[in-house]
Design brief:
Elements (H helix, E strand, L loop, with lengths): L9 H11 L8 H4 L15 H4 L10 E4 L4 H12 L17 E5 L3 H7 L11 E4 L6 H10 L12 E4 L10 E4 L4 H16 L5 E6 L3 H4 L1 H9 L3 E4 L6 H9 L4 E5 L7 H7 L4 E5 L4 H10 L15 E6 L4 H10 L7 E4 L10 H9 L3 E2 L10 E5 L7 H11 L2 E2 L3
Parallel strand pairs: 1-13, 2-3, 2-4, 4-5, 6-7, 6-8, 8-9, 10-11, 10-13, 12-14
Helix pairs in contact: 4-6, 4-13, 5-7, 7-10, 9-13
Length: 400
């Protein structure tokens, strides 16, 4: 009998949904007027249930991080993982040691920075707009008040590439002139923080974000770094980084249309190579969710897990959501079409969720449970798709 996992109560979902309704990362007054869940709504008020956030932000098996852009989603996810109360400002309990700050203009920089969420740093990613810090990121940084990461020289903010430099915080910089060099620099920084290089490396295409997105969740959970190749070449910074790992196990995420077979043959000169792929971003993500080899991979083939859902057209949402995969109920990122979001869940995702749907024979209290994070507003993932996901995560009666 698997170990039972309790689903969050409706009250807990409401609190989380309220925290996650941060609106968007933009600054215009019109955009800040977007409605969201509200605490303290009375039953006598019109549309009370809707104002409380059901089902737009929370259902019985899902919670939505409902930002209009990845900047807002990153801020909301960081607050969900580190729910620091505003009271007791002097306390360090529940605060992150550091946050990673990256420019929202390049999804690749954000993707490789996801590894900084892994231990020992535990740094969620916030997004900047060039050298400006959007309100959502600035407010979240102020709320989290990072304590300073000993493994990063006491830095509270880890700046990756050309990004904002927030005043009043101890910072450390990870530099690089391009995404390939930055990926190598982030890898070296994370290895120095851990005191050793990883035995596993994820290699993804620098040109096909929808196929690369699931790597962010695993890097945040495992501490295995992400490196980039192009379809037909292994850039020198990537080759140098692989040499530093001294014959690691290399996992290529994506089909030959994104990372060619000649590139795989070249990668085999640096270590053992395994390709994990699918013919579409959705199939590719499901394949990665199912995959496991030794200590690498999620190996999701049974019920009792967390899942994170993000839209293929918003690759930085994978970065924003990475802390959700590395805490709480943990779990892989599943990529959905959009935006705009279709009304129907893709068949491959539906069949996967059916395969791992929880069941019970006599008492659901003795069962295990699945849980889902929906990342993005209803343009990224529609309420219809959220409803379908909720039903597929629900524990159901089964015949013995």
């Amino acid at each position: 009998m698997p170990v039972s996992r309790l689903r969050p109560s409706v009250a807990a979902l409401l609190v989380t949904a309220t925290v996650l309704a941060v609106g968007c990362g933009r600054d215009s007054p019109d955009e800040q007027k977007a409605p969201g869940p509200t605490n303290g709504v009375k039953g006598t008020q019109k549309a009370a249930a809707k104002d409380l956030g059901f089902p737009a932000f929370a259902t019985k098996n899902t919670v939505r991080v409902g930002g209009a852009d990845p900047t807002a989603d990153a801020a909301a996810a960081a607050r969900a993982v580190f729910p620091v109360p505003t009271e007791g400002a002097a306390s360090t309990v529940g605060r992150p040691a550091a946050v990673a700050l990256v420019d929202a203009k390049d999804w690749r920089v954000g993707l490789v920075s996801s590894v900084l969420m892994a231990q020992p740093l535990g740094a969620p990613t916030l997004l900047s707009n060039g050298d400006e810090l959007p309100a959502a990121s600035a407010d979240t940084l102020a709320e989290l008040r990072p304590t300073g990461a000993r493994q990063a020289g006491g830095a509270q903010v880890i700046r990756v590439g050309n990004t904002a430099r927030p005043e009043g915080w101890r910072t450390v910089d990870i530099a690089g002139t391009d995404p390939f060099t930055l990926a190598r620099s982030v890898d070296a920084f994370a290895a120095a923080a851990k005191g050793t290089t990883s035995d596993h490396v994820i290699v993804v295409s620098a040109d096909d974000p929808a196929y690369a997105m699931p790597a962010a969740a695993w890097a945040a959970k495992s501490g295995d770094p992400i490196l980039f190749v192009t379809r037909d070449a292994v850039p020198q910074p990537t080759a140098d980084a692989l040499k530093a790992h001294q014959q690691p196990k290399i996992y290529v995420l994506g089909p030959p249309t994104t990372v060619s077979e000649p590139v795989v043959r070249r990668l085999k000169t640096f270590g053992d190579v395994t390709r994990i792929d699918g013919v579409s971003p959705q199939t590719n993500a499901v394949a990665f969710a199912r995959f496991r080899s030794g200590k690498f991979g999620w190996g999701i083939t049974d019920p009792g897990h967390g899942f994170v859902f993000a839209a293929a057209g918003r690759p930085l949402d994978a970065v924003a959501a990475a802390p959700l995969s590395a805490s709480g109920s943990y779990g892989p990122l599943l990529v959905l079409p959009g935006p705009p979001s279709p009304a129907v869940l893709p068949t491959i995702v539906r069949e996967f969720l059916l395969d791992v749907q929880p069941g019970y024979t006599s008492d659901p209290v003795r069962g295990v449970y699945n849980r889902g994070w929906i990342v993005g507003d209803d343009q990224a993932i529609s309420l219809s798709v959220q409803s379908q996901i909720d039903r597929l995560l629900e524990i159901v009666p089964v015949t013995p």
